Amino acid sequence: MATGKIHCKPNRDPAHPDHIPSLFQHVERTPKENQSKLQRFASAVKRKIAFNTPTPAKRQRKVLSPLCESENSQEEEVYMATPLHADVNSQYFAEYEKAQYNIEINNLRAEKEKLKEQNKELTDSLQSANLSFKHVENNDEKCKFYTGLCWETFITTFQFLSTFVKPAPKNRMINLEDQFFITLVKLRHDMAFELIADFKRVSVATISIIFWLWISLISAKLDFLIKWPDRETINLTSPAPLQQSFLD
After folding, report:
1. What is the DSSP letter of 79?
2. How far apart are CA 193 and CA 207, in angstroms?
């Protein structure tokens, strides 16, 4: 950049001081200001070429920009910087990065499985503390303890009774399975309504309404399962003290 002249002609490089000057009002500058602008532009082009060169190589200042050529410019050898990932080491870095990615992926998968197990444990604990039928699902021992029925009998009975119940809205706080479950728990263990309400996080009135509705439904639809013996059978099977006191 020996001349330091700006010719006020459109230039294809947007960083050049003469980039489409016809669109803007021309401002006269001193030769010193023009020289300073051209030197900054040449330095910027040099840095751009240096960091975009894939391998170390000799360059000429003359080729920094074909738009800034000058007859008095002097050729000078310069050495460009080598990027971090040069072709010589690209394969090594690719394999190293791939190994690191695989290690990180495996660690994330292990962490995911661990979190899934913890989530399942917490969900089971919450269901147990919440008096949910999920806590006894497919577990005959627990189901018999809470309801007096094995799991298959419990779910079969519920499926039969649920056909007589209107579909529950999606926003219902206690689903039908849990309603039937807490009804049987109340019958078997005589739990207080207040305690069940605390477990289910609803009002005592809600639990009371649910219980008596299901009791009415069970009485109406399952009464055929209760077979009262006739009087002769009662007389034959009653203990002796009862026969002496109550039989005619």
Report:
1. E
2. 6
* Structure-token pair, residue 96: 């190293």
Task: Give the 3-state DSSP-derived string for 27-46, with helices as H, strands as E and coil as C.
Answer: CCCCHHHHHHHHHHHHHHHH
**C-alpha–C-alpha distance, residues 138 and 145, integer Å:** 13
Same domain, 74 and 109: no
Q: Give me the domain span that covers residue 102.
A: 84-129
Q: In 3D, which of 8, 12, 69 has the Cα closest to residue 34?
A: 8
> pLDDT tens digit string along 131-158?
888 888 889 999 999 999 999 999 999 9
Residue 201 contacts by C-beta under 8 Å, 6 or more apart in sequence?
A: 130, 173
Q: Are 22 and 37 in contact (CB under 8 A)?
A: no
pLDDT per residue over 213-245, tens digit each? 999 999 999 988 888 888 888 878 888 777 777
How far, in Å, CA of 31 to CA of 1, rounded? 12
Yes or no: say if 178 and 131 are a contact pair by the CB < 8 Å rule: yes
Burial 178-203 (b: 16+ CB within 10 A, else e): bbbbbbbbbeeeeeebeebbebbeee
Would 240 be classed as within a structural domain? no
148 plus 208 within the same structural domain: yes
Q: Is the residue at 15 inside a domain? A: no
| Spatial distance between the Cα atoms of 195 and 207, rounded to a whole number of angstroms | 10
The whole-angstrom separation of Cα 6 and Cα 155 is 91
Q: Tell me how many domains the chain contains.
A: 3
118 and 150 in a single domain? The answer is: no
